[in-house]
Amino acid sequence: MKKWGSETVDLPVIGNGATDGKDMQNAIEMAVKKINDSGGVIGKKLRIEVIDAGCDPQMATTATNSAKLPAQGYDTLFLINGLTPDQAQTAADYMAANQAEKVVLIHDNSAYAKDLADFAKPSVEKSGGAVIAYGAINYGIDPYFV
Questions:
Q1: Left, alpha or beta for 99 (phi > 0: left; psi -120 to 50: alpha)?
Q2: Strand pairing partners for 103?
Q3: Where is the Leucine-binding protein domain positioned along the sequence (predicted)?
Q4: Phi, psi angles (nearest 5°) of residue 67
Q5: 16 FRET partner, CA 20 to 30 A, in 40, 41, 48, 63?
Q6: Helix, strand, or coil (residue 56)
């Protein structure tokens, strides 16, 4: 049986991605308000419940599993963000379309950013670019990290 009205959202609430997570939460809350102000979905009001992904794959998996979505009556889980390989290829295609022939990939050593950079390298090369440098900066440690 499909449960309506309560949607669980997996966002980075803490960690390197907390600022982005808050922006995502604000956007989702604005959309939910707009939908609810227009009568909801098939007459039902929506409500979101935020669970913390911490911008970390293990933490996100644990958080999502702890939400016990099937036990709450959900029979479907929707992914509203592209998968990492798709994000990397989209970025590489954008770089190629803008004549970026030489690319430097720098990540912040978070699990998500490193994974994205790892996927981006072959995507850039597949799109005709050359990765001339690849490296990490350390959040809160390196003086040039803001």
A1: left
A2: 131
A3: 13-66
A4: -70, -15
A5: 48
A6: coil
First to last CA, the chain: 47
pTM (whole model) above 0.70: no
Read off the tokens for 46. 């929506």
Half-sphere CA count of 34, side-chain side, radius 13 A: 6
CA distance 74 to 89: 32
Decide if 57 contacts 20 (C-beta within 8 A): no
**CATH numbers and ranges of domains, the chain:** 6-72 (no CATH), 84-136 (3.40.50.2300)
Strand partners of residue 42 = none
Rounded to whole angstroms, the Cα distance separating 97 from 87 reads: 15
Residue 127 DSSP code: T
Going residue by residue through the chain (146 aa), what tens digit of pLDDT does each one get? 344 455 677 788 887 777 888 898 899 899 999 999 999 988 888 888 888 877 777 887 787 777 766 666 766 666 666 788 999 999 999 999 999 999 999 998 888 888 999 999 999 999 899 999 999 987 666 666 55
